[in-house]
Each structure stands twice: as structure tokens, then as C-alpha cells.
Amino acid sequence: MEREMNRFAVLQLSGCAGCEVSLLNAEEWIDRYNLVYMPLVISAYDVPEVDVLLVSGGVRTDEDLYNLRRAVQRARQVVAVGTCAISGGVANLGDRDEVRALFLAQAERRHLPHLLPRIRPVDSVVTIDRYLPGCPPTPELFMAVLFNLPDFKASKTVCQECGRKKLTATPATRVLSQWSTRGGKDKRPAHLLGFQQGEVLPDICLINQGYLCVGSSTRGGCRAPCTRAGHPCVGCRGPSDAFIEKESSKWFASIQRVFAAMTDIPPEEIEAALRSPQLALFLFQFADYAPPSGGDEGRAPRPKEKVL
């Protein structure tokens, strides 16, 4: 008798479909799960009853709100997938006052879909069983959340998975001095290098080279594909367990301490870069659940036990 396969669906809300592409790049689920709903590749009117519902994208429109509430009633387990579902992602940048002012200043805007006042993470509407942060999560992470793989082990931080060497005083002087003769940086960077600027040494920590990399406190599990390729970690996996239930200022302070130990870059330069749209997109994705610094009660933190 043929074994009945587990059924899962992918509900796409307001997002970029990057998470769906990442899932389709994985193959391990094909023989064990039956994908019954995913508008990107499957024509279906509604979400049927499923074992697992993966939700990508944020709750941006009234249609998103309706579809989410309807779909979770038919799922045994609900997983929030990716930055957009967890914090709003790129669309959430539009909730920043200066961005909204710029948008609304253009009088010719018309024929727009009806928007809710602000984009909302899906767990502000429905109960979530697991969180799968990433932008997008890697195929391996999708398989880990679908199969509850017992042998899947993620490092605490991206930094631990990166493999690049952090240079202390003696080796740093020798290696970076050789690099400096080729027109590279000083032994201790005094300023940040811009995104995708400069020559990247293949085996040396990106912070030593003057790049704003936040992998030292970003949760691991992605296997550090960005930093291995020479691109600084922007924190898309969210804070490590040490910071996930704390306000964002704690995460920022940790990043500042790392840069103070390894560079001579002014703290205010780092602070400004951390709050730029490129990084703020990810660095605040769990901050909305931390108790505010004023002492008032905030929303309950997302339990780190639920975050893959």
C-alpha cells in the first residue's frame, strides 16, 4: 500500500517571492511532501487542509489579512517564513515617516490597492508555531523546518559558520601590512568601506577589512554563503538567541563592541550605517516584540525555542 504523503502549502502574502524560489531550489521534500498550494507555480483557488502551512510575506492589504485568517484554519502547523513574514521586510520601509512623506508628496499617485495603515507581521493576526527567518531562508533551512531533521545543527552565529580568520595584533600587523603595500587598508580600519567597494581578501574577517558585517551576533544556520563570498552579513536571519528577546539597542551595542575591539572606526559612523535602510530592514525584525526602554509592557517576545 502506498504511503500517504504529508501535504503542505505556501501562502504568499505581500513579499517578493524570494522564499518560494529558495524552496523550489531544494529537492529533498519532493518524495516526502505533496505541495498542494503555491500560487507561484500551482493554480488553485484556495488553501486545502494541510499538515504544514508556510506563510511568506507580510500582512499589507485587507486581502492579505483575509487570506491569512482563512488559511490557518486548515493547517495543523503554521510556519512564518522569511524576513517579510516576520517583520514586514522591504515593504515595511514604507512605514518609515520620511519614506511615506516622499511617497504621498507625489500627487499623481492613483489607482493604488487599498493599504492597511501599516504592514503587520503575520503573528499579529494568527498564532505561529515556528519561525524561519532569512531573506530568503536557504533550501537547507526549509528542509529542516519541514522534516524536523534530528541531525540539523545550526551554529549560534553566522560568524561561527563563516570560516574567515579574525586577526589579532601580531598576525593582523603582518597580513594587513602586506596588503597595505598593495594599496589596501590600514592595519586597523579607520572608516567603513562602502557596500561592494574595495578589494576583499578571501580568508580574512570582513570587519578586519573595514566592512560593516554583523555576523558576530546574527543567528546561524544559513552556513554563511554571503560572507564566504565576500559580502558582509546584513543580519537577515535576525539576532542570535542571546539577543532575540531583548530590545534592538542590545544587539546594536554588541555590534559596536565588536567593531571597537577590531577597528578604529568611530562609533557614530557605525551607528549611522546600522540605521540605514539596507541594514535597518533586518536589524529591527525582532525589535517590535522587545519591551520598550521606557519600562512599559511590550508585546510578548517571540520565544527563541520557536525560531529555527
Description:
This protein is α/β, with parallel strands linked by helices. It is built from 11 helices and 7 strands. The strands form 2 sheets. It has a 5-stranded parallel sheet, sandwiched between helices. It has a two-stranded antiparallel ribbon with strand order 4-6. α1 (18-24) links the parallel β1 (6-12) and β2 (33-37). α9 (248-262) packs across α10. The two termini are 34 Å apart.
Overview in brief:
The chain contains 11 helices and 7 strands. It has 308 residues and is α/β, with parallel strands linked by helices.
Q: What is the total number of structural domains?
A: 2
Classification by helices and strands: alpha/beta
Rg, alpha carbons: 21 Å
Widest β-sheet, arrangement of strands: 2-1-3-5-7
Helices and strands, with pairings:
Layout: E1 6-12, H1 18-24, E2 33-37, E3 50-56, E4 59-61, H2 62-72, E5 75-81, H3 82-87, H4 97-104, E6 115-120, E7 130-132, H5 139-147, H6 158-162, H7 169-180, H8 225-228, H9 248-262, H10 267-274, H11 277-283
Parallel strand pairs: 1-2, 1-3, 3-5, 5-7
Antiparallel strand pairs: 4-6
Structural features:
single chain; 308 residues; alpha/beta; Rossmann fold; 2 domains; two-stranded antiparallel ribbon; 11 helices
